[in-house]
């Protein structure tokens, strides 16, 4: 098992859900954290909590991963003490809408494509060269069961997560011959702000997604990510698909009520 003491971990989408859960589990292991998200106040609150509980050193980036120039600037201007990133967790992602493809919103499509695919690519492109140069590193991409199984009205979101899966596979192949590892962690139902975002803040509709089901928690997913990143250096866990016991596929869910 690899020690993460003093390793530098960059987490995108760190202000909520799986990103926040990752920050906590890695803080507990003694890592130093670069926390990136659009909502700076949430990052500041998280950083204060981590400092109080674990004494964690943090560096905050108010960042929209869709903005390539902002990503380039953020990575290139990291202080020397924070520039050698050991682990990149590409967690920033979202779903917008649940419409038939021929009735979908162009704005929703662009937000999903720009965040889930292009944002992930931007961070990877600017961070991984340093990993290759230093002969160490690990990229963890947060995918989804939607990247394995398309479901009705999921069209573009499923397409973006299928892209994440393909990009992860391609990156692993391109890094062959280096010690840099690549993992895709692909959860099913996780109770986060995901559904609130998908339904544009309609919390009543969002709650129905998890009604009668015990979904995964962000901590469950963070635990799997932590496991993947702490294996022996010669071990690469390529892909993990995890779902709650109440879910058998993207569309098969056992509801108790």
From TrEMBL:
Protein name: Short-chain dehydrogenase/reductase SDR
Organism of provenance: Tolypothrix tenuis PCC 7101
PANTHER family given in the database record: ALCOHOL DEHYDROGENASE (PTHR42901:SF1)
Organism superkingdom: Bacteria
GO MF term set: oxidoreductase activity, acting on the CH-OH group of donors, NAD or NADP as acceptor
UniProt record similarity statement: Belongs to the short-chain dehydrogenases/reductases (SDR) family.
Entry keyword set: Oxidoreductase
SUPFAM superfamilies tied to this protein: NAD(P)-binding Rossmann-fold domains
Transmembrane segments: none
Matches recorded under CDD domains: SDR_c5 (cd05346)
């Amino acid at each position: 098992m690899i020690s993460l003491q003093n390793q530098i971990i960059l987490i995108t989408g760190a202000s909520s859900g799986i990103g926040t859960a990752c920050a906590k589990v890695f803080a507990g292991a003694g890592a130093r954290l670069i926390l990136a998200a659009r909502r700076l106040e949430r990052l500041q609150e998280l950083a204060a909590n981590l400092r109080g509980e674990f004494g964690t050193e943090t560096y905050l980036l108010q960042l929209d991963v869709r903005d390539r120039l902002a990503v380039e600037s953020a990575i290139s201007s990291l202080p020397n003490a924070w520039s050698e990133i050991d682990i990149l967790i590409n967690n920033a992602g979202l779903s917008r809408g649940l419409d038939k493809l021929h009735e979908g919103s162009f704005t929703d499509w662009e937000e999903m494509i720009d965040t889930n695919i292009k944002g992930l690519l931007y961070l990877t492109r600017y961070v991984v060269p340093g990993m290759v140069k230093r002969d160490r590193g690990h990229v963890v991409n947060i995918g989804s069961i939607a990247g394995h199984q398309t479901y009705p009205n999921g069209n573009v979101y499923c397409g973006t997560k299928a892209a994440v899966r393909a990009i992860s596979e391609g990156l692993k192949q391109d890094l062959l011959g280096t010690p840099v590892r690549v993992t895709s962690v692909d959860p099913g139902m996780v109770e986060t702000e995901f559904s609130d975002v998908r339904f544009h803040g309609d919390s009543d509709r969002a709650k129905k997604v998890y009604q009668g089901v015990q979904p995964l928690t962000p901590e469950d997913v963070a635990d799997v990510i932590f496991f993947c990143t702490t294996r022996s250096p010669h071990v690469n866990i390529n892909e993990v698909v995890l779902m709650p016991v109440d879910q058998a596929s993207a569309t098969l869910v056992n509801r108790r009520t």
